[in-house]
Amino acid sequence: MRIAFLNPVVAAFAGFLMLAPAQASDLHLSDEEASLLEQLRDPQQEAWQRIERQLTRHWSRSGSASADLLLQRGRDAMRRGNSSVAIEHFSALIDHAPDFAEGYHARATAWFMDGKLGRALSDLQEALVRNPNHFSALTGLGRIFEDLSDFDRARKAYLAAEAIHPHRNDVKAALERLEQRLGGVTL
């Protein structure tokens, strides 16, 4: 029954992955964010970890002290392993700041921890609509598709993440896993 419910969600993401690059071109990035993303995309970039941290900090700033506090409280609850409390904080954050991509990404992570893959997929879609460059959301999307044995869509999501952030070992390992699973077909 659970897989049947997820199939429409999974199907919706197939179309979404095709639309994400077009939406990214319409996205208005700050000069700082655009510069950081350009530097991160360079496969020869040696300071990629610093750039990744800067982007993550940038994406974690909502512009509202109360929203930032809800994000922090939710993250603290997740670190303690309390996904239900984290979901409450992230849901309040999304109610307060519905255009803040990181709120959806964080709640998707909490839903995933709670085993609610359909809800996690929905929140990842919302995060990526607001921030198509969110490589962690794309990686999460790949992970969920991989868990659902939808290896083609998992591959597409991981490749999209790799195009933005070619340095992530978890994405490289996932693509290698998929290559082995698909019988050595070159990805």
From TrEMBL:
According to its record, what are the GO cellular component terms?
membrane; TRC complex
Q: Coiled coil located at which positions?
A: none
Keywords carried by this UniProt record: Repeat, Signal, TPR repeat
- Repeat as UniProt keyword: yes
Gene3D superfamilies for the chain: Tetratricopeptide repeat domain (1.25.40.10)
Which GO terms are recorded in the biological process aspect for this UniProt protein?
post-translational protein targeting to endoplasmic reticulum membrane
UniProt repeat feature TPR, residue ranges = 101-134, 135-168
InterPro entries the UniProt entry points to? SGT, TPR-like_helical_dom_sf, TPR_rpt
Offer an example of a GO molecular function term for this protein. molecular adaptor activity
Where would one find the signal peptide in this protein? 1-24
Question: What is the top-level taxon of the source organism?
Answer: Bacteria
Q: Name one Pfam family in it.
A: TPR_16
Protein name (Swiss-Prot/TrEMBL): Uncharacterized protein
Q: Which organism is it from?
A: Roseinatronobacter bogoriensis subsp. barguzinensis
